[in-house]
Amino acid sequence: MNIRERNQSYEDLTLINQAKFSKDTLGRKCHELEDDIRTVFMVDRDRIIHSKSFRRLKHKTQVFIQTSSDHYRTRLTHTIEVSQIARTIAVGIGLNEYLCEAIAMGHDLGHAAFAHVGEAVINDFLPGGFKHSEQSVRVVSKLEKGGKGLNLTAEVIDGILKHSGLNDTNNIPITLEGQVVRYSDKIAYVNHDIDDSIRAGLLTEEQIPKHLIDELGNSNSERINTLVHDIVNNTVKNIERGNNKVSLSDKKTQALLELRSFMFKNIYLGNVLKDERKKAGFIVENMLQYYFGNPEKMPVMYRNIADEEGKERAVADYIAGMSDDYCLSTFNRIYIPKTIVY
Asked: What are this entry's molecular-function GO terms (predicted)?
């Protein structure tokens, strides 16, 4: 028995029957010999963490707030928080925490520069639309490693693709671990975005509806703790009743959705950041148009995509992969004069 097989035997001892066992994976698109030490989901996690797309998350916006302070979340720290919450829930239920971790680490790799503002602009530009969840799959399946992709397992790719939309009953992940990450993403961003918004002076504790404070807690950590305990306890009850479904209780689901709606109204789509969203959208729009008109300015891989799949697809891939910082610096290089013109 090698070390990987020993790790797989630990899964037999610690995971519930409804978990996804690494030895039972649906496999990879291209067959590979298994690692002697790591299970397939550990390998997927490591490939994602060591990818260029993952490193770029450190300079991608979580919420479009001026990140002059080191204490604001970025897309990278959001990803780490999602992973932490997902692993805690997985251990509480008896699911495969390494599968949860791999999905969590890869779920936002396809987010564009300037978060959902960039996503909305690219969605209008690209025929067929643009969704960051689909782009995340494209990143790990095609764009990484110079066009080779990371060759991840089917379970991880499914979890990445279906991590958005709690109310979409037609888009439920095939594994309970994927469902855990789906909830963990919402638990993480709703709560840490409140924390960042208060720090930025865009929101006050008093503005948060009192009945939601009473239901979930009076701080970021209290609310996360409440939701994590609820989802573990409620899911265990679901499974005991023969309903293999990850879910919060009805009361906590309603509270989380209300808190999310509150954030959309007041922060994500509120007037307080309206001007900044316009600026970000202007930059992304002009970057898209510039490279659409000058595809030869893109790196070779994207020029090849333009030949194979069309210029819109290639330009969308290139701009979506940019960090905020790189997008801004490139915009300045293209559009801002460097010397006085007489």
From this structure: triphosphoric monoester hydrolase activity
